[in-house]
C-alpha cells in the first residue's frame, strides 16, 4: 500500500494510521509464526519501507519479503493437479497442519482460500495473514464478524444476525477456529471440484432462506434448510469425483469427502471431528483429520502405482 493510494480520500491521516496498524499487526503475527517454526506458514524474511517519488509526489511503499513459492494452488489446479489424488490429499494435509499450527498459537487465519495457499517444491504453505486475529493480541480485525473474503464465509456469517460468542467484547478464539474449519473443509472441496463451497451452498439453498433475499430470516430458522442444501451440494461434489476418478480410488475419496463433511458442517456448534471430543480434546482439534489425510495421501500413491 502506498501513500498515494491511501491519500485518495478525505481522511488520509486516518487511513495512513490504519494501514500502519494493519501491516504492523500482520508482521507481528508473521514473525511469531517464524519464531515458533510453524513450517506450514510462509516465512517472512524481512520488512521495511522505501521512499519513492511518483509524478513529483513523494510516497512510501511498505514491504515484506517472503520466501518465494513456485505459485499458488490455483495455478497447480490449472496445470492438472486436480486429477492427482495423492497431491490433493497431501495439499489438504499441509493446509490442515498449517491451520492447526496457527490454532495452537490461538491465531485464526480467517481468510483461507485458493489464492492464499502457496505451492513449494515439496510442500504447500498457508500465506497472507493480512486478516488474521489472535486471542492474545488485540488486532485491527477483532470487531468484524468475518474478516476474510465474503465469497468464502461460513453460513453463520452470511448476514443472519447470528451473534457469535464474545468475551471482553471480542469474538472468542473458539468461534474464529470454527470459521477456519469451514474454510479448510471448503478448500479441501475446492481441490477436487474447483468451486467455492460457499457459492455452491448458496446456489442449493432455497432462496427465501438466503439473508441476501430475506433480511429477516434468522440463522436458527434457516439452519435446517442450509443442512438440506449442504446434503445436496456434497452429493453433487461426490458425483463429480466419482465420474472424475477411477473407482479403484473410492476408498480414498469416500473418506476424503467424509472428512470434508465434518469441516463444512453449516452448524458451527457441531463442526469438526466428534471423535476428538470423545477423547477429551476440543472438537475443533485437527489431529485425527491430519493423520487420516496423511494416510489417504499414501494410499492414493500406492493405488496409482498398481
Ligand atoms: N511468497 C510468495 N511466493 C510466490 N507468490 C506469492 C507469494 N506470496 C504471495 N504470492 C502471490 O501473490 C498473490 C497475492 O499475495 P497475498 O499475500 O495473498 O496478498 P493479497 O493481500 O493481495 O491477497 C498470491 O495469491 C500469490 O499468487
Ligand atoms: Mg491473498
From TrEMBL:
Per the record, a Pfam family? Pkinase
Q: Coiled coil where?
A: none
Which parts of the sequence belong to the Protein kinase domain? 1-296
Q: Which PANTHER family match?
A: SERINE/THREONINE-PROTEIN KINASE TNNI3K-RELATED
Kindly provide the name given to this protein in its UniProt entry.
Answer: Protein kinase domain-containing protein
Amino acid at each position: 500500500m502506498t501513500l498515494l493510494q491511501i491519500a485518495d480520500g478525505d481522511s488520509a491521516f486516518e487511513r495512513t494510521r490504519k494501514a500502519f496498524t494493519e501491516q504492523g499487526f500482520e508482521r507481528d503475527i508473521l514473525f511469531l509464526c517464524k519464531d515458533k517454526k510453524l513450517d506450514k506458514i510462509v516465512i517472512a524474511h524481512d520488512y521495511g519501507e522505501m521512499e519513492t517519488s511518483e509524478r513529483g509526489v513523494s510516497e512510501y511503499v511498505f514491504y515484506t519479503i517472503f520466501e518465494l513459492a513456485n505459485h499458488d494452488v490455483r495455478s497447480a489446479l490449472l496445470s492438472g493437479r486436480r486429477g492427482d489424488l495423492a497431491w490433493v490429499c497431501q495439499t489438504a494435509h499441509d493446509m490442515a497442519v498449517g491451520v492447526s499450527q496457527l490454532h495452537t498459537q490461538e491465531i485464526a487465519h480467517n481468510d483461507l482460500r485458493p489464492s492464499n495457499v502457496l505451492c513449494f517444491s515439496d510442500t504447500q504453505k498457508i500465506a497472507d495473514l493480512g486478516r488474521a486475529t489472535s486471542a492474545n493480541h488485540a488486532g485491527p480485525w477483532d470487531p468484524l464478524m468475518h474478516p476474510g473474503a465474503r465469497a468464502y464465509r461460513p453460513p453463520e456469517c452470511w448476514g443472519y444476525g447470528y451473534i457469535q460468542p464474545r468475551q471482553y467484547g471480542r469474538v472468542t478464539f473458539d468461534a474464529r477456529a470454527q470459521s477456519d474449519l469451514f474454510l479448510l473443509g471448503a478448500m479441501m472441496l475446492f481441490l477436487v471440484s474447483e468451486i467455492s463451497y460457499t457459492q455452491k451452498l448458496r446456489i442449493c439453498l432455497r432462496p427465501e432462506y438466503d439473508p441476501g433475499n430475506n433480511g429477516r430470516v434468522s440463522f436458527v430458522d434457516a439452519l435446517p434448510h442450509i443442512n438440506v442444501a449442504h446434503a445436496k451440494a456434497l452429493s453433487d461434489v461426490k458425483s463429480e469425483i466419482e465420474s472424475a476418478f477411477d473407482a479403484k480410488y473410492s476408498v480414498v475419496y469416500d473418506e476424503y469427502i467424509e472428512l470434508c463433511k465434518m469441516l463444512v458442517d453449516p452448524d458451527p456448534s457441531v463442526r469438526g471431528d466428534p471423535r476428538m471430543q470423545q477423547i477429551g480434546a476440543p472438537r475443533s482439534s485437527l489431529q485425527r483429520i491430519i493423520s487420516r489425510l496423511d494416510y489417504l495421501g499414501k494410499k492414493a500413491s500406492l493405488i496409482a502405482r498398481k
